[in-house]
Amino acid sequence: MKNKNMIKTALIGFTVGLVNGIFGSGGGTILVPCLVFLMDIEDHKAHATSISIILPISLISSFIYFKYDVVDLSLTLKVAVGSVIGALFGSNILNRIPIYALRKIFGIFMIIAAVRMVF
């Protein structure tokens, strides 16, 4: 059973890393549902774990993007300031949101993102 979990975890990690490298996303959109539904991790812990995993894969992807000169550094710095402030608020709010509401909010954001990507 332990080997099966290691393989499942490695496949989830590979998929998240691959999607992050190609599309610049994947941490939340793929990892949170995988952790909750495939790994049976509690929702709040899945969201927090997803954010923690995003750091190393984003650093690796960013390094390669910089190597190929496809990063707008000025825009990155401007958006990063707002993102850091938002992350401070969001990470403090997460545990105050009931799981049923968290799932609905997350689902709504995923649906909006999917619709925007298609149209």
Mean pLDDT level: 90
Order of helices and strands: HHHHH
Question: Strand pairing plus helix content: what structural class?
Answer: mainly alpha
Biggest pleated-sheet summary: none
User: Strand-residue fraction?
Assistant: under 5%
**Count of helical segments?**
5
Count of spatially separate domains:
1
Q: Evaluate the radius of gyration.
A: 16 Å
Instruction: Give the low-pLDDT segments.
Output: none
Share of helix, binned: over 70%
Shape: globular
Number of extended strands: 0
Q: How far apart lie the N and C ends? A: 43 Å
Folded structure, characterized:
With 119 residues, the protein is an all-alpha fold. It has one domain. It has helices at residues 2-23, 27-38, 43-67, 73-93, 99-118. It starts with a helix and ends with a helix.
Features:
119 residues, mainly alpha
Topology:
Elements: H1 2-23, H2 27-38, H3 43-67, H4 73-93, H5 99-118
Helix pairs in contact: 1-2, 2-3
What's this, in brief?
By secondary structure, the protein is mostly helical.
